[in-house]
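Worked example

This section walks through a single chain of length 194. The input is the sequence exactly as stored; nothing has been trimmed or padded.
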Amino acid sequence: MLRQVLVFPWRQTNPVENNMKVRKALLTDAESVSKLLNQLGYQASPKLVRDKLEALELSARDTVLLAQEGKNIIGVISLHVLELFHQPGRLGRITSLVIDDDFRGQGVGAMLVSAADAFFMEQLCVRAEVTSSDHRIQAHTFYQQQGYAVDERRFVKRYGSLGIAETGTDHDYETVRLQVNEKRRKGDRFISSK
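Given that input, the structure is written out below as tokens.
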């Protein structure tokens, strides 16, 4: 059912968009997605992207959608749904949106955000949010054109104790799990489920 909602040809007057469609990302798309993410400066190797796609594959509340024109992947958007604790409903969150340099300004981003809206509404979200770095002024304008408004201040705390954020290197989940277990063995405190 989700596939019926999200896979559709984009109908606009721009001839490039006549062959565009949105579809769910597959594990085999990892290299194309990695290239897109690298265009915005994210150092996401194909292996990291594949690991993330695999981790999200079975989740009903997380998805990665692609814009495809012919055989080319020209855009990616990652979506996550969180249960709101303090009020009814859920929160939709866009964690990445990248359009290929050669296709920016042609409606691809709007198409992906529209697909995100459909996904979030299907997931019973009462609102959606996206974070954009201060230096991405054009992105801010784009999001406002899509109905997003500047809202509350966000505070961020980065965890680098496992070497992920500090080194910028790729770690698969098994490596991170082993590092966490080693920290636990040494007596470092983590929240326990026991």
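What to look for: The chain has a mean pLDDT of 79.
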